[in-house]
Write a structure and sequence with these properties.
Layout: H1 8-13, E1 22-26, H2 28-39, H3 41-53, H4 56-77, E2 79-86, E3 91-98, E4 101-110, E5 116-120, E6 128-132, E7 135-140, H5 142-156, E8 160-162, E9 171-172, H6 195-202, H7 204-219
Parallel strand pairs: 5-8
Antiparallel strand pairs: 1-2, 2-3, 3-4, 5-6, 6-7, 8-9
Length: 220
């Protein structure tokens, strides 16, 4: 199967930029880093606003805060935390990059021992996902998810399994047929402490910081 035959939903996760040698896949950690970077733009804008309105020592304080926040936001948005499937060294590994510079590579594993599994999504009802080394990639319906699995499995020689035909059993991938007595999840089931939950806890922080800046501004 060619990359061009994959669905749009699959191509969101799998870019052909580095194919056929490498396939970088965004991890949950990367999504958390990017979201946190966008959240920090709120106090950044507030600091810039206060730096313009104030003068003297207070202005210098907010200019310093703006510079620090600007550097932090740019760094976070330029950071990549990915699971990489690499045919050049036949390894799967986690990789951390910032501004295109590789900072760290760890958890290397042979592609021959890197399992890819098709499973019902526990985050989105009536959708299916691929699981590779603990990373979940929600693709879409069963057909397009199976196509994505077969593409990755054949290109990188990964052992392929599925958790659909005999759910919840995980069996080797064959001709995928859903049995009538297979019991898949009837509704999404999300872990309590996933990245979204952490972000919800962090959201009030920049809001309160902004509110404090505004109150201080009017108080002055």
């Amino acid at each position: 199967m060619n990359y061009s035959a994959l669905s749009k939903n699959a191509k969101i996760h799998f870019s052909d930029k580095y194919l056929p040698d490498r396939l970088p896949l965004a991890t949950k950690t990367l999504l958390f880093i990017r979201d946190f970077g966008f959240i920090l733009t709120i106090p950044l804008v507030s600091s810039l606003f206060m730096a313009v309105r104030l003068d003297g020592t207070e202005q210098n304080l907010f200019i310093s805060a703006s510079l620090l926040l600007t550097f932090t936001v740019i760094t976070l948005l330029a950071t990549k935390h990915q699971l990489v499937l690499d045919t050049l060294n036949t390894q799967a590994y986690l990789e951390l990059r910032t501004f295109g510079i590789k900072l760290k590579q760890w958890k290397s594993k042979s592609l021959a021992k890197t399992v890819i599994t098709l499973s019902p999504s526990v985050h989105k009802e009536s959708s299916y996902q691929l699981i590779i080394e603990g990373q979940h990639f929600v693709i879409g319906d069963l057909t397009e998810t199976e196509q994505a699995l077969r593409f990755i499995s054949s290109h990188f020689q990964l052992p392929a399994f599925e958790q659909v035909s005999q759910y919840p059993e995980i069996v080797p991938l064959g001709e995928l047929k859903i049995s009538s007595d297979a019991q898949a999840p009837s509704r999404p089931i999300e872990s309590l402490w996933n990245s979204t939950a952490w972000l919800k806890l962090l959201l009030p922080l920049p809001v309160f910081i902004t509110l404090g800046f505004v109150l201080k501004l009017f108080g002055s």
